[in-house]
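Blinded run. Sample ID left blank on purpose so nobody reads anything into the name before looking at the predicted structure. Input follows.
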Amino acid sequence: MKIGIEGGLIIAFNGTEHRLIENGVVVFEGDTIVHVGKSYSGNLDRKIEAKKRLVIPARAAKEFHYKIAWKESKCKLELS
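Blinded prediction complete.
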């Protein structure tokens, strides 16, 4: 079953560095991530709406160090 998490702010890791993808999509099948990007043209069995959500796929999270600071209802995300 292919499941897509769509519309969130995705923190992706391309093997070298982290990048932010606004309104992106993460697709996984079983316990394997099969796609991370701005869009996905393949078929999905289920879609999960993630607008206004932060999405960190597991392989990015393993290499990701972050700090989130809240100030006056605004969020600042620092990647390191």
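Unblinding after everyone has recorded impressions. Residues 58-62 form the longest helix (5 residues).
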